[in-house]
Amino acid sequence: MRPRTLGLFLIGNRAAILELAADRRALWVGLLFVLSAGFAREYDGEYLVCEPWYLLIPVGASLVASFLLFVVACGPVFLRREGRPSFFSAYRQFLTLFWLTAPLAWFYAIPYERFLTPGTATSANLWTLAFVAAWRVALMVRVVSVVTGRPWSACLCLVMVFADAVALAAVHFMPKPIFALMGGVRQTESEKVVASATFLISCLGYLSVPVWVIGALSSFFASRSKWQVPAAAEQLPPSRGVRVLVACSLLVWVPILPFTQPEQYLRSRVERDLRAGRIAEALDAMSAHGRSDFPPGWEPPPRIGYDEKTPHILDVMEVLVTRDVAPWVRTEFVDKLRRQFGEPPFIFYNRTHDPDLNRITRILQRLPEGPEIAAMYAPYMARESPDERLSAEGVANKELLMKLAEQGSPPQP
């Protein structure tokens, strides 16, 4: 195995695909590439010192995904009574090729958040994901066509039915904000980009499912296929160039991690404290550092609109107004409070009949930005339903908020 062979494989060269599939040692090279891809994904997203298992997620996920894709795409090979290979031997060869696509995941290491705005960085990350996913799908279509001897059109439906299912499952299970219009929650630029992308993927995915399922069923039972990987010849160790490439793909993180892991340590510490109810400790830890000491684009919990219960934004704000916190920390959570309130008139349509109104009133009275926030919603409070629907305490709180609104003026559009 040489670097040139790997390069040709990544662009779908038939001879390179068959050579690598037959090479038992290439399996371990692929495994090391998967580990390096784990670093590329997580080096600036997780605190790997305490949570090194994040590096093993790509290994476990790839084992499950490769096995399912092998059964779906290469299953017809085993419908033959004669000349079919050993199932596990064929799967090992397929897994080798699947793992050797891992270098494509190195694109995920591009730190867009460090030189782009949050919304633009999110968009760039999603386009990178789309580019890598499309390359991998096209490459696996070619791989299945080469190792089974079937035309690419038959293999396309088999691979795409699997890829479509994976994409829809990812959209379904990934954390995402609730529907903004119904919730009245303000979304950040990044959340708007993610929401648009997930909506588009869902639409395309569900609409194309019948096409891929019908095509896959037709290809699975109608196409004749035969395992094309030759018997392993003399096994030679990977060339020096491949060993250097593997070593560099892992060792490159040695000088990078010291710059990113301190940020992840602080992030991890603050998030643990907030979710454990140690809000004062978390706010003090944040105030003791500058915003640049934390990961770019990081958002402390709770993420508004994600139905996160711990901590509640009002719990955080009740502690924040009693402490001397850094300006950037107050700005961070005041912005969350505004987003929790949502677009007018949602907040007071929902909140004037909510037991949290008393807490909101106390917080806004003590918050420097309180008059401005109250003034933004004053017109909607004035038009709210008759006060008889409120308790005596609710009526008093509403009057206090109206007085507070007189002290502030809403920001100009």
Q: In percent, how much strand structure appears in the residues?
A: under 5%
- Count every beta strand, where a strand is a DSSP E run of 2 or more residues: 0
The class by helix and strand makeup works out as mainly alpha
Helix content estimate: 55-70%
Largest sheet: none
What's the number of domains?
2
What order do the helices and strands follow? Answer: HHHHHHHHHHHHHHHHHH
Shape: elongated
* Estimated radius of gyration: 27 Å
End-to-end Cα distance, whole Å, is 62 Å
Runs with pLDDT <50, length 5+?
179-183, 345-353
Structure write-up:
This protein is mostly helical. It contains 18 helices and no strands. It has helices at 3-10, 14-22, 26-42, 57-74, 87-99, 118-148, 152-173, 180-183, 189-222, 240-251, 253-275, 279-287, 313-320, 327-341, 346-351, 357-366, 370-382, 392-406. The longest helix has 34 residues, at 189-222.
Question: What features would you highlight for this structure?
Answer:
2 domains; 18 helices; 413 residues; mainly alpha; elongated
In a nutshell, what does this entry contain?
By secondary structure, the chain is mostly helical. It has helices spanning 3-10, 14-22, 26-42, 57-74, 87-99, 118-148, 152-173, 180-183, 189-222, 240-251, 253-275, 279-287, 313-320, 327-341, 346-351, 357-366, 370-382, 392-406.
Q: What are the SSEs and their pairings?
A:
Layout: H1 3-10, H2 14-22, H3 26-42, H4 57-74, H5 87-99, H6 118-148, H7 152-173, H8 180-183, H9 189-222, H10 240-251, H11 253-275, H12 279-287, H13 313-320, H14 327-341, H15 346-351, H16 357-366, H17 370-382, H18 392-406
Helix pairs in contact: 1-2, 2-5, 3-5, 3-10, 4-5, 4-7, 6-7, 6-9, 7-9, 11-12, 13-14, 16-17, 16-18, 17-18
